[in-house]
Amino acid sequence: MRQKAHDYFFLLGLTVVSASCSKEGITEEFVEVRDGYALSAGTSTIYSSSAFAYETESDWLSGDNKTRWNRGNTLYDDGPTDNKGLGPVYAGYSCGSCHNRTGRTIPSAWSDAEGSGKYGFSSMLVYVSRKNGKFFQDYGRVIHDQSIYGVEAEGKVKINRHTKEFKFPDGEKYELCWFTYNITDWYADSIAPEDLFCTVRIPLRHVGMGQMMALDPHEIEALAAKSNYPEYGISGRCNYITERGIRQLGLSGNKAQHADLTVELGFSSDMGYTNSRYPEEICRGQRQVAQGSMMGLLYDKLEASTSEMEDVDLYMQANGVPARRDVDNPTVKHGEQMFYKAKCHLCHVTTLHTRTGGSVLLNGTRLPWLGGQTIHPYSDYLLHDMGSEICGVGLNDNYQSGLAMGNEWRTTPLWGVGLQKVVNGHTYFLHDGRARNFVEAIMWHGGEGEASKNIFAKMGKEDRDALIRFLQSL
What we know:
Helices cover 25% and strands 18% of the residues. It is an alpha+beta fold. The protein has one domain (33-472). It has a two-stranded antiparallel sheet with strand order 1-2. Strand 16 and strand 17 (366-367) form a beta hairpin. The radius of gyration is 22 Å and the shape is globular.
């Protein structure tokens, strides 16, 4: 076995039992997973498989931090008291309105093709710009499709669904779906479709946020240096962004485009609450403000305090991560081996470590309990090209975030993914919710995910089903 692969498996905490090699590299390996993988997040592992599995506090939480966690929980679910400061335009009325139970509210692309969704709002972020990448004067980077009384929402999203049927080599059928979008009811001048670029994000699951913020950045950078597997077309890289005047490793978001959990940004951009980091109303500069229709709604007083937002940050980071389930089930064990056979683990890295000292909240509070932990997120938190075309479209949305190009996406952490249906009542995946189940999500993989997708497709049905059963155990 080549030295680089040996070092990589050592870093992951795996034991390579046997391997056969070819001139191009490793063609097959059997990986024996060490004990302890059910403990997804070390001391933050919780043993819940209920609808509250994503929003249950870690056992180490106590005292004043427990009080603050409860406050943060309420703010996350409901927003500040009586929605004071909400808007004037907004995309959701609270964190929990889109991240239901800290998971994923059902995408309105499936609940309502008109885009408003059964919850009365879009439950997604709709990014808009000109085709040349510049923003429109009367709109920001996100369309705010909701507004308070007396104010016009910026626009409404109409979603068009498309479906095509395919077959695996053994004859089993599957479908792939994708979306196109129209925006209507612009509050200002309508924008010509030929000048409009639109890309959509559904909410991420807020699972393992504290562990992500406590990751050892040197380990992630080491993974980027080592994760070059030309025989599978895989080469992950880091995203670096500058926030608060500091250039940092990006970890958070679909494209690892943030270095923090974006609590302050969410309060501002998504809900319209001014705060110390974003003190201006998101509608400032819009034509309807200039015309005076909202001048009385723009206050000098900040609407969300730093302590409130840090309570939300604490809530997100102190939630536990569900332990794996059914780890001794023969089908799950078989599916785990298929996971490795398909090389999924080369991007969905099984084992990482948190740095000594833990994480630091947005106002400086330290959470040392998150430090020095061995965790199993099933992600390398790196960017990978996923963008080859399928059905004439693909996962390239042509939207750049930091160093991430449109075809690059951060590897999605898989811990807790098997409970999404229990928590949120659906299995819609990928950045825009186009995949209705695990099979479709896998079959949308292109670019650096092409090799794994093809290995999966060529498996027999029993092996494919076992791999899916393994994912359901995470």
